[in-house]
Amino acid sequence: MSAGRKAFGDFLRLEYSEENILFWQACEELKLLEDPEKIDEKARTIYEDYVSILSPKEVSLDSRVRDLINQSMQNPTKTTFDEAQMQIYTLMHRDSYPRYLNSPEYKRIAQISPRRTSVCLG
């Protein structure tokens, strides 16, 4: 994990929204898998940890995307969470990240390393 992504994750933890970046990272890990059994296992873990309404780390998804995920969980693939991941990315990009850029934590990091202050999620 990059230092920038870690710093952003630390900020999200302070805001009680760390589940967003954890979900995003878990989806990225899922995309790297090739073994169907491991894909199924990882997808179910992501579902239980971040999509299930019973999870304390549930991410905020609209009902259409949640329904798509529920349907695809019978036979999950690497792309099962793509739309959900994009929703969470957009949420972080429009909401959390601008707040992070204005935070004392980011300003402190920017003073230490003025040329490398952006966060690359991809």
TrEMBL record:
Organism listed in the record: Caerostris darwini
Pfam family, one: RGS
The gene coding this protein: RGS19
Name of the protein this chain belongs to: Regulator of G-protein signaling 19
RGS domain boundaries: 1-110
